Fold these 2 entries.
Entry 1:
Amino acid sequence: MHVLVTGGAGYIGSHTCLCLLEEGFSVTVIDNFCNSSPEALRRVQALAGRSLTLIKGDVRDAATLDAAFAGPRIDAVIHFAGLKAVGESVAEPMLYYDNNVAGTFNLLQAMQRAKVSTVVFSSSATVYGDPAPEDLPLEETSPTGITHSPYATSKWMVERCLADLHTAQPQWRIARLRYFNPVGAHPSGRIGENPSGTPNNLMPFISQVACGTRPMLSIFGGDYPTHDGTGVRDYIHVMDLAEGHVATLKYLANRPNGDLLTLNLGTGQGCSVLDVVKAFEAASGQTVPYQIVARRPGDVPAYYADSTQAQELLHWKAKRTLHDMCADTWRWQAANPKGYASE
Ligand code: NAD
Ligand code: WQD
């Protein structure tokens, strides 16, 4: 099976490409490297002992996509390419609608021209908005669409578009995967998350504090209605997430009459910011100095997934622990303090 992976050089894409190569899939990546480095894919190929095809290009460019589909027959697409910084999306909404929504429409139109109708889309738990405590754990049928950022709205819009496409053309095989909070790195320490500038997300910030790049973690809010007052999330190891994509492709391959899957990919466990700090200190042997500051605007107190649907349909389950997530993040961070620019 030949898979086109858009955004394959990015954090989740690179780990997924490695799993695909290890499972015997042929892989072509399209990436414009706006938030990634070709070094990630060099390392993926070295780890896998197999090569992939790389096209440097933009999913908003129809000619690039048509050229990709004109090569060796592509059986399925995993669509990671997009922008993901929530705060930036508030400041630059058109950038987000252009990359995430127009980019996806362009890809789906190119797929129609090429008669490729299997697609796995990177959605996000953010489509659930600000869930009420009684809505936890979040099920796929929990309310969506009351979004709080253009980023979240862009994911929700694409989800709707994919559902409409499936209604009109039920032979399409579509998976809308709602990731919770991906963290961690490949256990080799060779590939991992490579944020540019100040990390927005908790785990890369903690790991940069632990290695001395930043002096202290600011914990956004200590007065949430959670077990220790700090925000609760469902952190999932990026390798579990990557394996979830392989399981999804295998599932869709056996749906000859089409399907529209909507699945949460999480662990089902809620961990607080302080839980993560303590687990990171234990896994790394480093101290993570922190201060509790005001809540971050737009943050919700708690959310975590009900992932039983993914378990039942895909025979997939997130199996790595919070300790694994922290130990693997630290191995990557310690060996690559400047990410892919370290070498
Ligand atoms: P990432 O930024 O590391 O990877 C995205 C990749 O897409 C990068 O390599 C980037 O260069 C590329 N890209 C962006 N716009 C492009 C375009 N127009 N054309 C071609 N390539 C383009 O992000 P990630 O964490 O790997 O996330 C992958 C996907 O998963 C994104 O769609 C993101 O919204 C979604 N997602 C991420 C998270 C998370 O917390 N990391 C959570 C839920 C959903
Ligand atoms: C986690 C917890 C923060 C940084 C975001 C997106 C979401 C999805 C995943 C793409 C929260 C706290 C964080 C820090 C802190 N991405 N925190 N100090 O906000 O749950 O989700 O990434 O789809 O759409 O919104 O993740 O890692 O930023 O925060 O205290 O320096 O850590 O308040 O409780 P979040 P996060």
Note: The two ends are 33 Å apart (CA to CA).
Entry 2:
Amino acid sequence: MVSYKDLGLVNTKEMFAKAVKGGYAVPAYNFNNMEQLQAIIMACVETKSPVILQVSKGARDYANINLLRNMARGATEYAHELGYDIPIVLHLDHGDSFETCKDCIDNGFSSVMIDGSHLPYDENVALTKKVVEYAHKYDVTVEGELGVLAGIEDDVVAEKSHYTQPSEVIDFVSKTGVDSLAISIGTSHGANKFTPEQCTRNSDGILIPPPLRFDILEEIEKKLPGFPIVLHGSSSVPQEYVKMINEHGGKLKDSVGIPEEQLRKASKSAVCKINIDSDGRLAMTGTIRRVLDEKPADFDPRKYLGPAREALKQMYMHKNRDVLGSAGQA
Ligand code: G3H
Ligand code: 13P
Ligand code: ZN
């Protein structure tokens, strides 16, 4: 058993209490490799932002849990070396079973998500409660989910979203004992969050997605005053990177995300954790494609991974400062 406390990590408790009070959201950035992690830490130290390092089941399979745990420990030491000790959480994203969550808790994660959102309500309650009971023994915090997001959640693909029903949230939170709740109000996973048919087009032909259901969020806030709410699927899909990818041999079509103004508005509410993965993938892939295209004789990975890391860092700093409002809060 490895405790996150020995790795210099924290759970989400105090982090979320501060975020709800302060009207900002903590960034939850996914990582699978060193350059992504370096960019996240550099950006969050430079903007003095708390951060949640998110590991999906796919990332665990890709990178190995021992390596990931030690990378997170390294991240706390790296932040210290950069000159500012920001609070860092190591979080399992979309845990799919009790066993996966237990394995992460036993391996030094300070927070886990158990995603029972695809299950019938009572099964979601029972599974989430079981994870909470185990996690809380070790002071690990737990995120549950009610409502289904469209898009890809690891191996689970939901064709259609189902908004969270505000009538269920009090019962779910009190029966399970979760520390935070992910809700579905119109966000979705991936770089194609909406079909062109669901959007309108502006005069430049850019797709404008339908607005998030802030009415549902408000109802949930009324039912659970001050309770930490989480938004998944919150990439804004920067069009500059979609363009960069397509100009350098890529083939992305109709990619559209959540407008930043809406994420800024959500951050000021009870939403205290905002999940961003796809934007990092776009920035990294766009930059790597551009460098390889422009400098075909380069074959040292640092020559393209270095610029990709810098692009990621700039993007995360922008999110912390201008979108989530987490800059200066660490
Ligand atoms: O919510 C899903 C995340 O974007 C993780 O994706 O399973 O491909 O690592 P992944
Ligand atoms: P995006 O695909 O919008 O980045 O969402 C990521 C996410 O919700 C991870 O859990
Ligand atoms: Zn998610």
Note: The domain at 4-324 is CATH 3.20.20.70 (TIM Barrel).
